[in-house]
Design brief:
Length: 451
């Protein structure tokens, strides 16, 4: 997520002002004024990973949402790297209120999931029951999604990297719940994303609306009869939001009446067409959300136990003992599965991982995956880093520690797992993944960015 700029924002596009003045009527002046104010900063805490921060003000519509008076340098905060919180725009956390009005799914899909803000929020809600398939077709964005899912540390996510059409062909009518947080023109992000302002045009809006209406039929195909669709964007205009209602009706979807507390400041559209957050009225950025239900009655999906591998799992000692795990070898890596899989799992196209990625066995050596470092209760031998050691570790340096008689050591800070160290004779090699390493200059000693 890009930091909000303290510099004076570029003026709003003239065509945008004109069209909003007509669409918003008496509220236009105040809303356009709000779009030139600084963006609101916020984070969502991991419900199971506690870290020390000063008391932060709560976001009213999410139990773990917190406003930030100032944006710290997240890169220099080990808790950020440990997945103790997700830097997420406050208005979009209202998804929490929406899902709490729907049944819990056995199989959910986040169809346009990168970088993972809403997938991690859905996972918090699911509490490791049922599966979430987080899909993202754009390769570099899919990598960021994978990193964020792993750092969030749950065992019930899987990731695919395909366009919705391929998914709909392979596993139609599979999802109890599907979230389409659609690619959009980003009008609601004008305060925090200068590029969204620069690139805005009527043409872009039309293009985005076309893309959304091309994704929606596949999205609906993926939903079970009786299942739900949540459709959201971070834009204001009708064409990209409730303008898709006729299409959805024609696809057999019916709107769901959602309720939100008036105190939140979101605006309800008529006929259950969803809710909109306007900056200035809501303490957050622009966001639109609506829920739809597919006609018909839900058929229970058959679940199957993950296939057991013939070889014994070299990573089983790293898994918490209080849970019954099924370890399987798939696509030349090892995975730990905690619960039955939907029977169609092997047909999911472009599947990147499922469950917990344990690691790989190469030339007789076992190399643990970073995912394991983030799960709750990983019983691997640990080394607690202090405030002088932690940033160098995250930078990829290999400081000297007292040797231990274990091949792999989990580096942690304040009880939060960060990554692996490999024992090499009298020292450790830093196994923190290259792409995650801090590139900026670091201070000699960590200072708590929250006080
Ligand atoms: N839900 C994400 C989150 O909360 O972090 C943000 C999703 S962003 C608004 C929309 C995503 O849709 C982008 O990651 C984009 O790469 C992806 N996308 C673009 N074209 C797509 C398509 N045709 N089908 C599915 N996803 C697409």
């Amino acid at each position: 997520m890009k930091p909000s700029s303290s510099a004076r924002p570029e003026p709003l596009p003239a065509d945008f002002i004109e069209v909003c003045t007509t669409a918003w009527g008496a509220e236009a002046e105040q809303r356009l004024h709000a779009l030139n104010q600084p963006a609101v900063s916020s984070i969502r805490l991991h419900p199971q990973k506690r870290f020390s921060h000063s008391t932060l003000e709560k976001v009213p519509w999410h139990p773990e949402g917190r406003y930030l008076a100032q944006r710290p340098v997240f890169t220099l905060d080990p808790a950020f790297h440990a997945g103790a919180y997700y830097v997420q725009e406050a208005s979009s956390m209202v998804l929490w209120e929406v899902i709490n009005q729907l049944p819990k799914p056995k199989f959910a899909i986040d169809l346009a999931a990168a970088p993972g803000g809403k997938s991690t929020l859905l996972l918090d809600w699911m509490q490791e029951k049922g599966w979430l398939l987080a899909n993202e077709p754009i390769p570099n964005r899919a990598l960021a999604l994978q990193d964020n899912l792993k750092k969030w540390g749950y065992s019930n996510s899987m990731q695919s990297r395909v366009y919705p059409e391929q998914l709909a062909k392979a596993i139609p009518e599979s999802a109890d719940l599907l979230l389409l947080d659609a690619p959009c023109s980003g009008e609601g992000m004008f305060r925090k994303d200068a590029f969204a302002r620069q690139q805005w045009s009527f043409h872009l809006r039309t293009q985005c609306a076309k893309t959304q209406s091309s994704i929606l039929p596949d999205a609906v195909k993926l939903i079970k009869p009786g299942g739900h669709l949540i459709y959201s964007t971070c834009t204001f205009n009708e064409h990209e939001n409730h303008g898709h209602a006729d299409l959805l009706f024609s696809l057999g979807m019916r709107p769901v009446q959602l309720s939100l507390s008036e105190d939140f400041g979101f605006k309800q559209l008529t006929n259950s067409m969803g809710w909109i957050a306007y900056p200035g009225e809501v303490r957050g950025e622009g966001f639109y959300v609506a829920a739809w239900k597919k006609e018909g009655t839900c058929i229970e999906e058959e679940m199957e136990v993950a296939p057991k591998s013939a070889n014994s799992c070299p990573f089983s000692a790293y898994l918490p003992e209080n849970v019954q795990w099924n370890c399987m070898e798939w696509n030349s890596a090892w995975y730990a599965i905690r619960q039955p899989l939907p029977s169609f799992w092997s047909r999911i196209p472009g599947l990147q991982f499922l469950g917990i990625c344990l690691g790989k066995s190469e030339k007789g050596r076992s190399i643990p995956d970073s995912h394991l470092a983030f799960i709750s209760g990983c019983p691997a031998p640990r080394l607690s880093l202090d405030e002088f050691q932690v940033l160098p570790y995250l930078k990829g340096l290999a400081p000297y520690f007292k040797p231990q008689n274990e091949p792999w050591i989990l580096a942690e800070f304040n009880g939060l797992g960060l990554g692996w160290l490999k024992t090499a004779g009298n020292r450790f090699n830093n196994a923190y993944p290259q792409p995650w390493r801090i590139r900026m200059d670091i201070p000699a000693k960590l200072s708590n960015p929250w006080f």
